[in-house]
Structure formats: C-alpha cells, structure tokens
Design a protein that fits this description.
mainly alpha; transport; cell membrane; ABC2_TM_bact-type
Length: 308
C-alpha cells in the first residue's frame, strides 16, 4: 500500500515529535551533550572509577600516594640538595601548590586524549554522544583532585594561612582557566588520537615538559632574572599553566604570614603583576583552545567508529 498523502516519510520526525524532544537516530546536541545527557555522563564516570580501581588494594588512596611521592622527591632534590627551600619560605606549600595543578592538568589531558580509543567498544558498537567520554575523564580527574586539594589546604593552614577574598578569587580563576584550557586540549587530541595513536605518546611528553616549563619547582622571578626582557619571557608568562600555577601560589602561599613578611624586604618573592597577573590572557587563551578543540572534535566524531 502506498503511503497516505501528506504523511511523513519513513525515518523522519514530525514537527510535533521534534517539539516533544524526539531526535533522529545519530543526532545529538553537540558540545551541549555533557549538560543534556547528565545521566549518561554519571554512568560513564562511575564506570571509569570502578574500572580504574578494580582489583586495587589501596583504591582511592592512590590519590594521596602519587602526589605524596612526587612532593617528597622534588622537595629533597630541589628543596634540600639544591637549596630552594632556604630562599623560599614555606617552600613545601609553594611546591605542593604547583604539583596539584600539574597533576590535574596531566590527568585530564592524558585521560581525555585516550577517552575515545579507550572506550572503542562503546564508540564503535552503540551510539553514545562522543563528547561524554572526554568530559567523564575530566570529572574523574576532579574526583582525584579533591583529596590533594584538602592536603594543600591543611598544609597551608599549618603555616598560618587564612582564607581571604583574594585567595578565593585566585583559586576560582585558576580552576576555570585550567579546566577550560585542558578540556579544550583534550577534545582536540582525543579526535587526533582516534586516527593517529602516536598522539597519546606525544601528550605524555607535553605533560613531562610542562612540569619544568611552569613555575612549579622554582620561583617565576628566577625565570625573569634569566630571560627577562626577551620574547621568551613573554611567551613564558603567556603559558596558561604558568598563569594557573601563579594563581594557586596567590591563593595558598603568597599571603602566608612568613612569606608576606619576607616579601616586604625581598622583591623576588613577589610575582609580576600580582595578585592575579595575566589572568585575562589565560582566560582568552583557554577559551580559544576550548573553541578550537570543540570544533575539531565535532567535525571528527562521525569518523570515530571507522577509525577504531
């Protein structure tokens, strides 16, 4: 029998159905998927946490073990052997403020890059909005970040730090810049890694280099003394991770009483442009990175199943 005149074609959706929220198979909300598919996103986060700690004796305690080992190694090698702790009051807080930033950056960036290839069975066999995979990786990284942040807060309080409006603003600015910038990079590299598996190894190198090209282990004024006034100094300052690490130093270290007292007579303890430095440049770079990463991911995601 022929279809009635005026009836919708097979596989199409009428206006009334579209108004009720119906969508054709394979269509989604693009970069808004993490907001509109919150239930699926929560399921993926739970799945990643279960898989990661399956068969693990320590479980979530690994969120403390890794940064603790990093801190001890760097503090002994740089703080004691090289002597940075002698010239930097409350060096333990200074160091750990940078470590938590780099750890969050590395975990979000690395896990987001591997999120599509690591979930190849789901991506290639059933339809799920692909954006959910890198975003779930970021949320898992934030779950691991919370214990490290609590340790940082405890250490800062022991040194006499007290919360303030400046500290809160610096922390919020740092988190926004870091997360927007890193998820943008993660979306970009996730799309590239689906086609070229070498990308994930390149990302590991970037994380390693970022640890040393950001003022995590040393003070930013040491870099200014070495290359100040050159194009390299401006590029160093515009590194979003440099901006974020300095914002975390402002939030948790710079206004510790003994640091503030020394800074009054030792200008090297003050960062250029403090308290918030080049925060506006960090936001602009982060936003541009997010837009580029999202556009590339959206244009690539329909080829993921074939690439995997």
């Amino acid at each position: 029998m022929s279809a009635d005149v005026g009836s919708p074609a097979v596989g199409t959706i009428s206006r009334s159905e579209r108004a009720e929220g119906w969508r054709a198979p394979g269509q989604d909300s693009g970069w808004l998927n993490p907001l509109k598919e919150r239930f699926l996103l929560e399921l993926l986060v739970r799945k990643e946490l279960r898989v990661r700690y399956r068969g693990s004796a320590l479980g979530m305690l690994w969120s403390y073990v890794k940064p603790a080992v990093q801190f001890v190694v760097f503090f002994i090698a740089l703080g004691i052997f090289i002597g940075l702790s002698r010239d930097t009051p409350a060096y333990a807080v200074y160091l750990f403020s940078g470590i938590v930033v780099i750890n969050l950056f590395g975990e979000v960036f690395g896990n987001a890059t591997r999120s599509i290839t690591g979930n190849s069975a789901l991506v290639s066999k059933i339809y799920l909005p692909s954006e959910l995979f890198p975003w779930s990786s970021m949320i898992v990284a934030l779950v691991h970040f919370i214990p490290q942040l609590l340790v940082l807060l405890t250490g800062s309080l022991l040194y006499g730090w007290r919360p303030s409006v400046t500290a809160l603003v610096a922390f919020i600015l740092g988190m926004v810049i870091l997360l927007v910038f890193t998820i943008g990079l993660g979306l970009l590299t996730a799309a590239m890694n689906a086609a070229f598996r070498d990308v994930e190894n390149f990302v590991d190198l970037i994380v390693m280099v970022a640890t040393w090209l950001s003022p995590v282990l040393y003070r930013v004024t040491m870099v200014q003394d070495a290359i100040g006034g050159t194009i390299w100094w401006w590029l160093y300052q515009l590194n979003p991770l440099t901006i974020v690490v300095e914002l975390f130093h402002t939030a948790f270290w710079r206004y510790i009483p003994q640091v503030a007292e020394r800074a009054a007579v030792d200008p090297s303890l003050s960062a250029p442009g403090e308290p918030f430095g080049l925060w506006w440049a960090g936001l602009l770079i982060a936003a541009a990175t997010f837009v580029i990463g999202t556009v590339v991911f959206e244009r690539s995601k329909r080829r993921f199943a074939q690439s995997l």
